[in-house]
Amino acid sequence: MSALTTIPADIACLADYRRYAEQLLPSPAWHYIDGASADELTKQANESAFARWQLIPRVLSGVMNINTQVNLLGQMHQFPMLLAPVAYQKLAHPSGEVGSMQGAAAQDIGYILSTLASTALEEVIDYEQSADCWFQLYVQPDWHDTLALIQRAEYAGYSALVITVDAPINGLRNREQRAGFVLPAGVSAVNITASQSLQGLQACLNAAPTWQTIKQIMASTHLPVILKGIIAVEDAMLAKELGVAGIVVSNHGGRVLDTMPASVMMLSLIRQAVGNDFLILCDSGIRRGSDIFKALALGADAVLIGRPIMYALATAGPLGVAHMLRILKDELQLTMALCGCASIADISTKHLITLQT
Fold it and tell me: pLDDT per residue over 250-285, tens digit each?
């Protein structure tokens, strides 16, 4: 089945996009996009963990105007969210990364392009209009290939590097295996060559980046560097000591190592450890504007939206992505208004209560 040309009237939230995507996508592609590692316990935890915190509304607050602006790396963003770097977006829709960029640009939302994009990085950024566009980097086995990617991103106009550090090897994707997923013809990682891909566990581990690799990258670029895939408090502290611009608290959507804690569960611990003067983004499991509110209250400066990009693309292409983001924006503003928060700076843990488990 092909994507729709209009937004179905019964799509009211992100879960509705997931329901449509499952119907519209070929089964192998659906299981690749929706699946996670092993028993998918971390994926389940990412979404269910937000229910641990309940919201405390404030009444008679007099809030009349909601300001959702945040400053990220010196650039003002109208909303505290960006599209996460998701690979092979042409699996969901022929427009691929260009389509999701168009949807993000329509809603003035920042965008992070994956190294494993199915569209050339130079082509995608041409559709950026006002919001920031960052490049996600997978460190390549050969340093010269890594440097070439960095230089291409710089020249094309990307304003930050987001280095994924939590996936030196692929996760145990049992659902993909059962579905027999392989990339279809016409979908590939066009920004790297086939010779740059590694085969075998030992080869991957031999080429895995280290803290020294991050130092080498920082010395080779003028772009701010963000590390994506930090869960341990100790790693967050090491990242700050190294001098990176920020981190993404992330468990890769549960796609690498199963039975990890939900990203949101680690936020407050990491914020306490690194202080308030360090950029923290968060991803994995955000499906509601209230989830964004909770992540901000627990210490995130902004969040990344991942799988819902693919659900929305598969359902209605660029229009679907724009509509999906509009839903999140409206939900966040509604949550802020009911909790008496006129600005992002007003959001704090005083608006949350923890359920006992």
Answer: 999 999 999 999 999 999 999 999 999 999 999 999
Q: Is 93 a catalytic residue?
A: no
- For residue 128, the model assigns a pLDDT of 65
pLDDT at 184 over 70: yes
Q: pTM here?
A: 0.94
**Residue of 31, 252, 323, 351 with catalytic role:** 252
HSE at residue 58, side-chain half, CA atoms within 13 A, is: 15
Per-residue pLDDT tens over the stretch 10-37:
999 999 999 999 999 999 999 999 999 9
Name the token pair of 151.
């230089």
Compute the half-sphere exposure of residue 262: CA atoms within 13 Å on the CB side of its CA: 18
Q: What is the pLDDT of residues 278-294, one digit of tens each?
A: 999 999 999 999 999 99
From the list 124, 60, 53, the residue with the least C-alpha distance to 285 is: 53
* Cα distance between residue 275 and residue 272, in whole Å: 5
How would residue 200 be classed by pLDDT, with cut points 50, 70 and 90?
low
Closest CA to 91 of 29, 144, 142, 140: 29
The pLDDT score that the predictor gives to residue 180 is 92
CB 99 within 8 A of CB 318: yes
Largest CA distance in the chain: 62
Q: 9 Cβ partners below 8 Å, 6+ apart?
A: none
Q: Which residue carries 């082509």 as its tokens?
A: 123
If one counts every other C-beta atom within 10 angstroms of the C-beta of residue 307, the result is 26
Give the other-Cβ count within 10 Å of 81's Cβ: 29
Q: Residue 140 above 90 pLDDT?
A: yes
Q: Extract the runs of DSSP E, i.e. beta strands, from the chain.
A: 53-55, 70-72, 75-77, 81-83, 110-113, 133-137, 161-164, 225-230, 246-249, 279-282, 302-305, 352-354
Q: What whole-number distance in Å separates Cα of residue 159 and Cα of residue 150? A: 11
Q: What CA–CA distance (Å, rounded) separates 327 from 347? A: 20
Which of 49, 45, 54 lies closest to 355 in space, CA to CA?
A: 54
